[in-house]
TrEMBL record:
Annotated pathway: Purine metabolism; GMP biosynthesis; GMP from XMP (L-Gln route): step 1/1
Enzyme kind, highest EC tier: ligase
Keyword Iron tagged: no
Protein name: GMP synthase [glutamine-hydrolyzing]
Enzyme Commission numbers on file: 6.3.5.2
Quaternary structure and interacting proteins, as annotated: Homodimer.
Alphabetical list of CDD domains matching this protein: GATase1_GMP_Synthase (cd01742), GMP_synthase_C (cd01997)
InterPro entries: Class_I_gatase-like, GATASE, GMP_synth_C, GMP_synth_GATase, GMP_synthase, GMPS_ATP_PPase_dom, NAD/GMP_synthase, Rossmann-like_a/b/a_fold
Alphabetized GO MF terms: GMP synthase (glutamine-hydrolyzing) activity
Length: 520
């Protein structure tokens, strides 16, 4: 769903980079509204949005290959400032008369940029003669510049690592200013939109709220709406926005799929009925979900089964309400990028988040997803804007497929009960130690492995429980949380002593990448 027209929009043309959304995010952080359009529909988006500046993203494609994507001509005829990033820079050169070649000097990860000349992009940031850390990920490189361009920065693998045509306000960088590993990258993007494009930078989350509410009203009209409400931050914010937009037309539905944590369904219902005046229906569908998952071990099959059942339940409930035309979900950008290729193009599917790639192909209701372009921390900011209490905003995320994806292998009631107890103890210990807010997400996983132990002089042969805790900003990348060993020891002892069925506890020290946060 796209937000209403904004007077100062930056159009980001996506060529399939995994980090395109980070560009949008950096532009938003600079106080400027932006929208992403896949390259195939960039021309249409350009006409619709009437942007004030354009950014061309990176891509897994190579400009030297025939048939690789190009930016539509109208962008170059528009007279607007353009920033090309990585593939975007290579495109500027390929399409404006320069040259790009595949090279042996590939650069992946940390690299250093030597500033050769002053440039509006670097203003107040990088002076000529200085060297700065940037993040690179490329095999091709520019070898000849189009007319009007000059080199302003070089790196070991890229003699044209930063280029500028000041007259046309065209700029290109081989590195990625949108990722945090280019420490000054956000400021560089701010320079492009504020100083070079001359935009005001007065766009805020309050404005997003207004635009989102307006967009929901336009989309929904006088239709009936149901909201899939999990009690997580995302769907709660989506529900409140929708309620603000269409009031009485909205009914929220919480599905207890039998894969919730301990006491979760009841506490969510209490919270919403106490704190908010939102009509909420709790549906107990645990029998149905667990039956459908019987014997299923493949993670993608689990996700798709759950996604399909969610929709079936929503459709049935909608029917009981006399029909609904729209389904609101708290889908975020990371759900989208990991599930499906944003461009319909070449970025790969990591896992099917139940609410995106896990959705059935045919659905009666149209989706309303007001948070689809945002990252978790931005949703939290929006939640504050909507007056959600801080303890609520700080809740760790919990995936829609719930404990099913924390039970690798077959999911049974018995295993779920064991996992629920271990998870509750783990989170209780985290809270007691005052660590909850320092950790982005923490949970227990019940492994489909039994090991031998000795308890009370007897032999045991029981499950292994893995503990996971990560720090992250947006869930896209994460590091494992560095507990002290006493904490881990204490928690493991409690779990083994108190939970029948677990006789061994391990701690997961994998970051993302290469791991994902969840185990399935
Ligand atoms: N048990 C559930 N009942 C109804 N809807 C659900 C349930 N679980 C998930 N959903 C829907 O799926 C969406 C995606 O789930 P997800 O876990 O990403 O978001 P969330 O639960 O709202 O927030 P959080 O990420 O903080 O847990 C939710 O926003 C919600 O619309
Ligand atoms: O609603 C959801 N439906 C899903 O299918 C799903 N899969 C993962 N997650 C959550 O997304 C974040 C990133 O998880 P991964 O690193 O495992 O992909 C983490 O916060 C995960 O808990 C999901 N949320
Ligand atoms: N990250 C990118 O945009 C890479 C562009 C191109 N595929 C290259 O390897 O150079
Ligand atoms: Mg959730």
């Amino acid at each position: 769903m796209s937000i209403s027209h904004h007077p100062e929009t930056v159009l980001i043309v996506d060529f399939g980079s995994q980090v395109t959304q980070l560009i949008a995010r950096r532009v938003r952080e600079a106080g400027v509204y932006s929208e992403i359009a896949p390259f195939q529909s960039a021309e249409e988006a350009f006409r619709r949005l009437q942007p004030k500046a354009i950014i061309l993203s990176g891509s897994p494609a190579s400009t030297v290959e025939t048939g690789s994507p190009r930016a539509p001509k109208v962008l170059f005829e528009s007279g607007l400032p353009i920033l090309g990033i990585c593939y975007g820079q290579q495109l500027l050169c390929a399409q404006l008369g320069g040259k790009v070649e595949s090279s042996d000097h590939r650069e992946f990860g940390r690299a250093f940029l030597d500033i050769e000349d002053s440039c509006a992009l670097f203003e107040g940031l990088w002076a000529p003669g200085t060297r700065h850390q940037v993040w690179m990920s490329h095999g091709d490189r520019v070898t000849a510049l189009p007319e009007g361009f000059r080199v302003v920065g070089t790196s070991a693998g890229a003699p044209f690592a930063a280029i500028a045509d000041d007259r046309r306000k065209y700029y290109g960088v081989q590195f990625h200013p949108e990722v945090v590993h280019t420490p000054d990258g956000a400021k560089l993007i701010a320079n492009f939109v504020l100083k070079i494009a001359g935009l005001k930078g007065n766009w805020t989350m309050a404005a997003y709220r207004e635009q989102a509410v307006e967009a929901i009203r336009r989309q929904v009209g006088s239709g009936r709406v149901i909201c899939a409400l999990s009690g997580g931050v995302d769907s709660s914010v989506a529900a409140l926005l929708t309620h603000e937009a269409v009031g009485e037309q909205l009914t929220c539905i919480l599905v207890d799929h039998g894969l919730m944590r301990k006491d979760e369904a009841a506490s969510v219902v209490n919270m919403f009925r106490e704190h908010y005046n939102l009509p909420l229906i709790l549906v107990d569908a645990s029998e149905r979900f667990l039956q459908a998952l019987d014997g299923v071990t493949d993670p993608e099959v689990k996700r798709k089964t759950i996604g399909r059942l969610f929709i079936e339940v929503f459709e049935e409930e909608a029917k009981k309400l006399g029909g609904a035309d729209f389904l609101v979900q708290g889908t975020l950008y990371p759900d989208v990028i990991e599930s499906v290729s944003f461009t319909g193009g070449p970025s790969v599917t990591i896992k099917s988040h139940h609410n995106v790639g896990g959705l059935p192909e045919r659905m009666n209701m149209k989706l309303v997803e007001p948070l689809r372009e945002l990252f978790k921390d931005e949703v939290r900011e929006l939640g504050r804007e909507l007056g959600l209490p801080e303890h609520f905003i700080g809740r760790h995320p919990f995936p829609g497929p719930g404990l099913a994806i924390r039970c690798p292998g077959v999911v049974t009631r018995e295993k779920l009960d064991i996992l629920r107890q271990a998870d509750a103890i783990y989170l209780e210990e985290i809270r007691k130690a005052g660590l909850y807010d320092a950790i982005w997400q923490a949970f227990a996983v019940l492994l489909p492995v039994q090991t031998v132990g000795v308890m009370g002089d007897g032999r045991t042969y029981e499950y292994v429980c893995a503990l996971r805790a990560v720090t992250s900003v947006d869930g896209m990348t994460a590091d494992f949380y560095h507990y002290d060993m006493d904490f881990l020891g204490r928690t493991a002892t409690r779990i083994i002593n108190e939970v029948r069925g677990i006789n061994r506890v391990v701690y997961d020290i994998t970051s993302k990448p290469p791991g994902t946060i969840e185990w399935e």
